[in-house]
Amino acid sequence: MRARSWVILGQMPESVRKYSPTSTERRQSAACDGVVLSAPFAVEARFLSPQETAALHDEWTALAADSIEANPFFSPSMLAPALSAFADKTVRIAIVRDERGRLILLLPVVRQFGYSRLPVSYLATWLHPHCFYGAPLIRRGKEEEALAAFFDLVEREGTFFRFCHLDEEGAAFKAALRAAKDRRVAPSARYRRALLRGGFETGAHLREVLSGKKRKELRRLRARLDGEGSVVFETLKDAGALADWTADFLALEAAGWKGRAGTALANDPAASRFFTEALKSAFDRGGLLFHRLRVGARPIAMIVNFIEGAAAYSFKIAHDEEFARYSPGVMLEIEMMRALEELPGLSFVDSCAASDHSMINALWRERRTIAALNVSSSAGAQILFRVLTGLEKAGDAMRRRRATPDDEGSHDDLR
Questions:
Q1: Predicted local confidence at residue 36, as pLDDT
Q2: SS3 of 146, please?
Q3: Is 219 helix (H, G, I), strand (E, B) or coil?
Q4: Are 208 and 364 in contact (CB under 8 A)?
Q5: Residue 382's pLDDT is what?
Q6: Do the beta carbons of residue 294 and residue 316 sit within 8 Å?
Q7: Predicted structure pTM score
Q8: Torsion of CA 186, 192, 194, 196, to 10 degrees
Q9: Peptide bond preceding 40: is omega within 30 degrees of 0, i.e. cis?
Q10: Strand pairing category for 348-350 and 118-125
Q11: What kind and span of H or E run contains 402?
Q12: How confident is the model over 196-221, as pLDDT tens digits?
């Protein structure tokens, strides 16, 4: 049985009033509309507006460092500028505090309408267009109480909650399953994307995944590229150069197919602002891995990765299409792998790529299964919940049948 909960709308129950709150809790309870307080430990769950998160910066940073899953997309350095750039009034931040007033969970949420073509309202993880992972920040050792209070909070406002973009084998997904207990849960929307695990040696890795013929072809292309001028691989280390590197990336991406399609970061002032602010914030806290390949003074390929704890996420890559015949993106990825070898304690690098991305699928043969997880406890919603998840599973199966398999990485560009 789950611990009973009360919604604080007026006078608190006697058993809760007997608890002596911390100064932090007293300050936060001044505006308690919509707060859920779970007995017997006085765990508090509530929604904040994006603007209110500025006051959380230090404890938010501490939570990100002690989370059961590292997720740079929800750390202050990335989520704060994303909220400023992309969040509208429907976006809220769910937070949970423990009995000591410590922040133990943080997750951006949004109300959605429409599920599997049915007019259903529910709450879900908020993912902006440049957010590729959705694990909530949950303090280590506080998983079940944090998630139980979170479920109590969100279930008052929707048919069910949908966690988006979780690692199906990750700590957050497993913790949600444990905390759900007698609630109904349903994983869905699975797909697999390329992953590079730490502890590799680049030369040995390439010999394993690429044929001798392809490795010889890459050496030939590199020799031809050397004929264009001095080829240099660089990692950004100087804070004074960050603005120039950022501007070069935006220009390089906009000059390619994304610019022509109108999807480059530079095509959207809000996206460009988010990118610039996120890179600066991540660099300042040591969480940015920014690499480039240049010929002479000209950048021909650039890649941005974010790192949180032992986990790295490949965020954006761009290359100069005038040099496409030399496969600069492949060359940059290989040089980046050599640089990553030197990172102590690296657990993995998530490609954040589409499941059918031929280049990275051939270079990185391991896969990470990304999935959504629906959670519901409303007795009246059980039948609807089964119908919705059934429709979604049927749709997923149909899409898989129509898709071309690519998990073996046998693609013409890197075979």
A1: 60
A2: helix
A3: helix
A4: no
A5: 59
A6: no
A7: 0.83
A8: 40
A9: yes
A10: unpaired
A11: helix 382-402
A12: 999 999 999 999 999 999 999 999 99
**Quick one: pLDDT band at residue 24, thresholds 50, 70, 90?**
very low
Q: Is 275 exposed, middle or buried (0-12, 13-18, 19+ CB in 10 A)?
A: buried
Q: Quick one: which of 308, 317, 328 has its CA closest to 354?
A: 317
SS (HEC) of 112-141: EEEECCEEEEEEEECCCCCCCCCCCEEECC
| CA distances for 8 relative to 13, 37, 97, angstroms | 9, 7, 15
User: Percentage of residues in the chain with pLDDT exceeding 90?
Assistant: 71
- Say what the pLDDT of residue 188 is: 85
pLDDT for the residue 164: 96
d(C-alpha 136, C-alpha 139), whole Å: 10
Q: CA dist 57 to 90, 120, 189, 239, 287, Å?
A: 22, 35, 33, 22, 16
Cβ density class 17-54: b for 16+ within 10 Å, e for less:
eeeebeeebeebeeebeebbbbeeebbbbbbbebeebe
Task: Report how far residue 350's alpha carbon sits from residue 132's, in angstroms, rounded to the nearest whole number.
Answer: 10
298-308 and 161-167 beta bridge pairing: unpaired
Do 330 and 364 meet the contact criterion of CB atoms below 8 Å apart?
no
The pair phi, psi for residue 386, each rounded to 5°, is: -65, -40
Q: How far is CA 186 from CA 132, 168, 232, 363, 372, in A?
A: 21, 12, 49, 33, 8
DSSP H helices, 196-241, are: 202-209, 212-226
Which phi-psi region, left, alpha or beta, contains residue 23 (left: φ > 0; alpha: ψ -120 to 50)? alpha
Residue that is written with structure tokens 């001028």 in the block:
229
Q: Could you read off the pLDDT of 148-198 as tens digits, one per residue?
A: 999 999 988 867 899 999 999 999 999 999 999 888 888 888 999 999 999
Q: Do 338 and 202 touch, CB atoms closer than 8 A?
A: yes
Dihedral sign (CA 359, 306, 253, 293): negative
HSE, CB side, 13 Å, CA atoms: give it for residue 405.
4
Residue 265 pLDDT > 70:
yes
**How many whole angstroms separate alpha carbon 12 and alpha carbon 158?**
24
Q: Is residue 188 helix, strand or coil?
A: strand
